[in-house]
Amino acid sequence: MHFVAIHIHTIYSYSYSYTGVYISSNSLTSWSATTTTFVHQEVSSSCLSYDGSYAIVSEYPGYIYYSTNYGSSFTYTTEYYGEWVGVSCTLNGQIMVAAALENYIYISYNHGTTLTYTQTPVYGTWSSVSVSSNSTYILATAESTGVYVSSNLGVTWSIPMSYTYYYKGSAVSSMGMYMYVVTEGNGVYVSSNYGVSFSLTAPTLSSLSFTSVSCSGDGSVVVLCAPYNPIYISINYGKDFIVSTSPSLDWTDITTTFTGTTIVSTAYGSGVYVGTLYYDPTVSPTLS
Fold it and tell me: Strand, coil or helix: what is 176?
């Protein structure tokens, strides 16, 4: 049997980068703009709780906004202004982590209402941050200084990778056992031991300038995107990657559902795309 991405289609199309925040409440069939006016309108990252009731949105530069009503409206406080590059939250949305450029990793214990900075080893050029669903592990990348892992929700940190690569994205499984990091031209890295160590995988993809990575809750399904390339998919914890049937667009971000059956990806100037994963014995996908 083969595992491929199918039904890749546009679900929201836009002409400019910063046009607001859009919410889908009908399984990605249609989208509508939120009623909140974002101060700076340069939205950089977002995350949702499992049921969608809690949502977090960050600006670059600007504020962090939180919603407790399925994205109908958002609130922010002027206390937390920064060049936010990433946010991530647990399944219930209660724990949220955020990274700001030339700043610290911050954590919220109350759905994003208030933030506290963690004792990260560096005041870093952060590029991404991810938190495990069990509220234990944080994985963060700093563009040219390394990969940082905390196994106690930001109290202490280790640096399993300190190469001077341009780290661009991170993803962590629900229990923290599997972690994934993508770089700009230096490969894809996998940890299967809670971030103690990372190893290069799929070396044939190492020349690509990846922008984002995401994984399913159990870590078995991994999706990657790089500009003007098809989306790459793994169903064996990052050991092998399949070239999907997606178009080769200027991909900027990617995410997969907790079950790993649906992929959502954004492309600069082109829109939002959805792909469904399924087994098809008649199709022979290209392996990396």
Answer: coil
Residue 144 φ/ψ region, left for φ over 0, alpha for ψ in the -120 to 50 degree band, beta for the rest: alpha
Contacts of 197 (CB under 8 A, 6+ apart): 160, 191
Q: Is 228 helix (H, G, I), strand (E, B) or coil?
A: coil
Cα end-to-end distance, the chain, whole Å: 17
DSSP 280: -
For 232-245, the pLDDT digits (tens) are: 999 999 999 989 88
The dihedral through the CA atoms of 37, 39, 42, 43 has a sign that is negative
Cβ atoms of 275 and 231 closer than 8 Å: yes
pLDDT (tens digit per residue) in 1-34? 233 333 333 433 332 345 568 888 777 777 777 8
Per-domain residue ranges of the chain: 1-16+214-288
Report which of 218, 214, 212 is spatially closest to residue 259, judged by C-alpha positions: 218
pTM across the whole model: 0.90
